[in-house]
Amino acid sequence: MTMEPVEVLVCSTCRAGMPTDMEGPRPGAQLAEALLAKDWPAHVTVKTTECLSNCDSGCSIAVRGGADRWTYVYGNFTGAEDAALAHEGLVKYAGTEDGLVPWRERPVHFRKNCIARIPPLRLPE
Amino acid sequence: MTMEPVEVLVCSTCRAGMPTDMEGPRPGAQLAEALLAKDWPAHVTVKTTECLSNCDSGCSIAVRGGADRWTYVYGNFTGAEDAALAHEGLVKYAGTEDGLVPWRERPVHFRKNCIARIPPLRLPE
């Protein structure tokens, strides 16, 4: 079975609620860097993106993939230290055809911090 | 200029924080019905959809349109009484090529209740 490509979009501008004048890399950028360094299935691409407008619940990651998968936005990642759990949940997503990972298989963080989801472009009837 | 089609996706299962055992149509369904009855530009389609997983801040509407527009999720609509303001903001979105309505032109509700946004499929470089 060939899987449709999946895009992981990591908001690299996110400050995760920290002061706007702080120096050094932002938590979002650090999370993105840690995710880029992970091993991913061949059909998954990790990209950084500008603000996902989920600043009250950042850091944020959006994931989508093809016309038949739901798009998800997950929030409340703290930074690079959450890369492993984010990777786990995102790889599970990438292993589905419709983006729907069974509830009990989702990492707890994914269950509790789903910000929104958007139906597939090819809406199921 | 021909505009790419726009889809307005209204979560019709939303109870907007009301008890789960209440009878009668749900706020989300009432909002959807009111929006379906509005006049829209020819390239806009309004559809109902199941849960957008934004239940803490529902009722919710997602809007998207083509590979070059940002997708937005807006929340905290109370029901049919917010159809006029939702219509106003969504028509403005539909009038853009990239989904980015200038901040000052967005209805106040849209400014304050953006739940998340997702970059265009064709990411700008």
Automatic annotation (TrEMBL), chains A, B:
Lineage: Bacteria, Pseudomonadati, Pseudomonadota, Alphaproteobacteria, Rhodobacterales
Native organism: Cognatishimia coralii
Protein name: DUF1636 domain-containing protein
Cross-referenced InterPro entries: DUF1636, Thioredoxin-like_sf
